Amino acid sequence: MWTYILISFVVLMSSLFYHYQFGKPIGIIENPNSYYDYIVVGAGTTGCVIASRLSDLSNTTVLLVEAGGYFNWMSVMPLMAPLMQGSSLDWAYKTETQKFSSLGLWSHQQSWPRGKGLGGSGQMNYLVHSFGRSEDYETWPKGWSYGDLIPHFKKVTETMSVTTFSSDDPLVAAFMEAEISIGSNDAIFQKGSYTAKRGNRWTSFYTAEPRRFARDDFPKEKEIRTFLLDASKISLSSLLDLIA
């Protein structure tokens, strides 16, 4: 028995060492150049996508500016999400004091976790993904209907490794049958989707910033430089000095 425990311990320590030594993004710089074609402020979910798409342009330099740091190995494991809340990787927002809800919470306030670092909240959320219903797009402008966006949805699905739960799962089957039993037009049930790749968290961050242990997953011509600001010292003037 002790042999199995020892082997498990060695494997665990080796995994932690590997992620600690080689999990750091390779595109972080300390001294940005004085000129870039594009500067994207904020390396959250949207910022990473914008920087990634801009970097597809030939002969283009992109600087991605982020006030936080980079998420450690824990963010890769979906079950570790609760442990990152309230840490240095979380902006740790609080709601205003509530009058009619949150009565069982301190000061009647709810926590509002938001990711502070490369990848933003996508690095610490619970990976739930949805494109919404086709009816949600009926009031959108021409060219932005659900049908018009399907090609883009497919690209996002491939890039973000969006996976839908199988109907063979008994819990999913029971959930979908509930819609029939309720028999109401006001209740619409959909199978859940999530973003994971080979059991690991997969976010828009990985479309923009390769890591040492996954460089083969990214086109070699992509180059995005990432500059991390000290969140405790960030100000509008310091940001303007950087991009001026």
From TrEMBL:
SUPFAM superfamilies: FAD/NAD(P)-binding domain. Residues 1-23 form the signal peptide. It comes from the Eukaryota. Residues 36-188 form the Glucose-methanol-choline oxidoreductase N-terminal domain. It holds the Pfam family GMC_oxred_N. Gene3D superfamilies: FAD/NAD(P)-binding domain (3.50.50.60). Coiled coil: none annotated. The keyword Signal applies. One of its GO terms (molecular function) is oxidoreductase activity, acting on CH-OH group of donors. Keywords: Signal. The keyword rRNA-binding does not apply. Belongs to the GMC oxidoreductase family. This is Glucose-methanol-choline oxidoreductase N-terminal domain-containing protein.
